[in-house]
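Practice problem 4.
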């Protein structure tokens, strides 16, 4: 029996294979539209520029069958942060012979023999983002691509993998020269505290997030005062102020534990200024999810004209996120034992429904192990995002995969964070099947 190769070895071999591709053959890159996908795409296109290769780039929300069916057969296709859930479509339309996949999502389909794929689930299940994999791949193409390490860190933070840093991610962090500081995990840590608290959505602080009056009350309680007309930033607080602020936040959301609030703050140099990497990641995400992926890419490349545009988009996005969170919090939901279904229909944009589900899963409003399903209309379809509170409990990707076999649709994601696209006409059937699936499992337990 052939010994399984390490992920690092697999990356090296695939990079060698890629360098043998004909130089005149155009490369089509398809990448996902979240921070991890945008970071992956930016790393890859800059590596291709260094190789003087022809390419085109398309950023997509979902990889649907129709898109795969139209891909050309005479070009090299590269999927970033995508395609591990679409292997059957790649084989069906004869694309698998012609493509590379760099992705970290779960695989539950047979892998076509000729497919060239990098995925940690095939090599020991290491916790690494697609941008991390893309960076390691591009570093194998040319060592000078090491300069893009900080973009891989942004993707890692965008996919919330910074709390479990293994050997590969530690190596990427060392390459990136990003500064790490211990502190309260509320971002941005570099901006005045009143603004940071008002737009804080992870963790969600009841009575403070989106509430100017609530922010000022909290700061009054902690004794943190204005200095020269403005509040300190988080990284400027002394130890006593940090303790008081942490206590005040926990009192407003008792389900948050102290150890979940304190952790590593990553400071990254962008546009010659030290910034909170979590905010930079959020800006990239906001641009792309607001329909401006080209600005997100330009921002990652530190093109000056994209800076102001991205900040304006981010400000609007944050307002939209806060109002959508309030709507999700107050709307009528379908509640069951260990699950909640939030069917927002057209009231929340489908581009942020996954973000809403993620924020609620980290808010501690719901107990550990609760399955949160959030749904939003998307043209003639429905975008469904499912999250496990506390990253434990049932495998939500498997749940969706079983339902999609009956309703039809596309599914992808991870064990504790997955999503699917279904037709609007299947709305009732999907909800009924989901409820039945979750309720039966609860009885089994």
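Answer key:
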């Amino acid at each position: 029996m052939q010994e399984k190769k390490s992920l690092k070895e697999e990356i090296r071999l695939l990079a060698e294979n890629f360098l043998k591709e004909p130089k005149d053959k155009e490369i089509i890159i398809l990448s996902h539209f979240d921070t991890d996908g945008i970071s992956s795409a930016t790393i890859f296109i800059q590596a291709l520029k260094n190789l003087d290769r022809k390419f085109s780039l398309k950023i997509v929300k979902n990889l649907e069958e129709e898109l795969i069916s139209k891909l050309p057969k005479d070009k090299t296709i590269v999927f970033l942060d995508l395609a591990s859930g679409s292997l059957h479509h790649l084989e069906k339309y004869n694309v698998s012979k012609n493509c590379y996949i760099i992705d970290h999502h779960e695989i539950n389909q047979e892998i076509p023999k000729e497919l060239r794929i990098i995925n940690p689930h095939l090599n020991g299940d290491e916790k690494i983002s697609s941008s991390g994999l893309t960076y390691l791949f591009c570093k194998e193409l040319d060592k000078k691509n090491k300069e893009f390490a900080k973009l891989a860190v942004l993707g890692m933070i965008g996919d919330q993998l910074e709390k479990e840093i293994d050997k590969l991610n530690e190596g990427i962090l060392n390459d990136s020269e990003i500064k790490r500081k211990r502190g309260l995990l509320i971002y941005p840590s570099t901006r005045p505290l009143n603004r940071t608290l008002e737009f804080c959505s992870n963790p969600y602080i009841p009575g403070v997030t989106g509430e100017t009056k609530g922010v000022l009350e909290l700061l009054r309680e902690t004794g943190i005062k204005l200095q020269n007309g403005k509040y300190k930033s988080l990284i400027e607080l002394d130890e006593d102020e940090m303790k008081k602020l942490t206590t005040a936040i926990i009192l407003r959301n008792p389900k948050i534990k102290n150890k979940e609030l304190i952790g590593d703050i990553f400071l990254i140099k962008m546009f010659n200024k030290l910034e909170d990497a979590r905010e930079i990641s959020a800006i990239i995400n906001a641009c792309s999810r607001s329909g401006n992926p080209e600005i997100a890419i330009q921002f990652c490349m530190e093109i000056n004209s994209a800076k102001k545009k991205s900040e304006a988009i981010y400000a609007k996005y944050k307002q939209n996120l806060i109002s959508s969170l309030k709507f999700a919090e107050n709307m009528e939901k379908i509640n069951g034992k260990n699950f909640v279904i939030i069917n927002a229909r057209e009231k929340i944009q489908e581009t942020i429904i996954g973000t809403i589900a993620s924020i609620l899963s980290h808010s501690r409003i719901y107990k550990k192990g609760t399955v949160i399903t959030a749904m939003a209309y998307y043209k003639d379809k429905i975008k469904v995002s499912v999250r496990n509170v506390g990253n434990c409990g049932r495998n939500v990707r498997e749940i969706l995969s079983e339902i999609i076999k009956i309703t039809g649709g596309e599914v992808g994601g991870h064990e504790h964070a997955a999503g699917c696209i279904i037709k609007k006409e299947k709305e009732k059937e999907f909800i009924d099947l989901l409820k039945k699936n979750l309720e039966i499992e609860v009885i089994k337990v």
